[in-house]
Amino acid sequence: MYSIPSYYELGSCSSSGNFLQGVVLSSSRTATTNMGNSSCSTAEKKAEAASKNHSEAERRRRKRINNHLATLRTLLPKTIKTDKASLLAEVVRRLRELKKTTSEFAANGTNSETSQSNLFPTECDELNLCHSETEPGTVKATLCCEDRPELISEITAAVKAAEGKVIRAEMATVGGRIKSILWVQFVSPTGGGGGEGRLRRGLKGVVNRAAALSSTGPGLQALPDNKRARLSQY
Amino acid sequence: MYSIPSYYELGSCSSSGNFLQGVVLSSSRTATTNMGNSSCSTAEKKAEAASKNHSEAERRRRKRINNHLATLRTLLPKTIKTDKASLLAEVVRRLRELKKTTSEFAANGTNSETSQSNLFPTECDELNLCHSETEPGTVKATLCCEDRPELISEITAAVKAAEGKVIRAEMATVGGRIKSILWVQFVSPTGGGGGEGRLRRGLKGVVNRAAALSSTGPGLQALPDNKRARLSQY
DNA sequence: ACTGACACGTGATCC
DNA sequence: TGGATCACGTGTCAG
What we know:
Two copies of one chain form a homodimer.
Chain A: H1 21-32, H2 42-74, H3 84-105, E1 126-131, E2 139-146, H4 151-161, E3 164-174, E4 177-186, H5 194-215
Antiparallel strand pairs in A: 1-2, 2-4, 3-4
Helix pairs in contact in A: 1-2, 4-5
The first copy, chain A, binds a DNA duplex through helix 1 and helix 2.
């Protein structure tokens, strides 16, 4: 069927040392008895079948890879060069881009393996401060706790007490819980991080107070009725 | 140097019809004059050089592709199978995942080519309702306007009036402007979209009222002092 | 004629 | 051994 197996029938003795290394194992018997080209020996048939399996397996492997490449092509804008290497380069670019946008929103405290957009509040309370990668000199504070009407003003007070300034804020409220990400800069850059410590302590108090209020009923302050309306309750 | 060129020197006449089609063009002259293996003709040298260029070019191409694959490997968790096909499969999965999360947050009204996370408030007011792709039967409402203290309760009232129920909400406040994305389901599925129209009109009122308040000073209601604190002002 | 890109079969290597 | 994966050189086609 294929023309390649006839290649072995030429009786060529390649000048390369290890050119037929993989074959001598299976064709050693036929190599001792000098073969006629007709009435192929069983070993020869065996080798032929093995070669066929090999090439077909390799074809299947190529097909799998190319199928994935074709799938990747559909995930990119169609204006892209259809070239295989350029396609992969574009995939790298897009992946880096998406990873950056999502990882900036990802809380570094939790496992950042699954770089989901985790502005979605989690079940457990959370407070984490880190230095922003994209905005140097800016602290990114991520917190998650039970929502309550005066929470925003408490956060504001904590930032103010730390002599900080919120340059950007994002928050999501769902199921009575709130998750917020704040980008905070400090007014006096010579403070040497004192503001960051105060900010952490202040926000810690906010989160803990929310936990106390939700778990033990009216704890520090009692304000059961005038709670800010929770969107998820309607 | 390579053992493969000796393959041609065997004088094999392949049984395949077009097996040497590409070679007869360049080696046709040497094929007519039966060659001795010494004193290679210039054409032969030329063909050899061409073959060398060819294989080297192919090696460079392979290297480019593999470099990109190696780069992709670094962008994925290290626990991944190092297998090439599995790697690409994982890349496809991740790309789809990231694409979905970001495109879900992308407002469909604007151009959704650049799938950035555009929870960031824009300068101009915006109101857009569409059917959620990921949550069937759910309306995704995107709005952007000037922030004000009673805005959340107004949104809540609008959703309530439309007999809707917020199953998820996200919002970002920056620079005194707020952007919010709501996923709304309607309590009576037999309504046939009437609730969606009411929701649109209600939210439209909310956005327009914010615009009126910010542009023309105290418009409908005057409450200049007890405004909810804006995070971005501290 | 020449370059670039692709699929193919093959030898080598690792479980 | 046998299956799976890889890099390689090559034939072939398009611009």
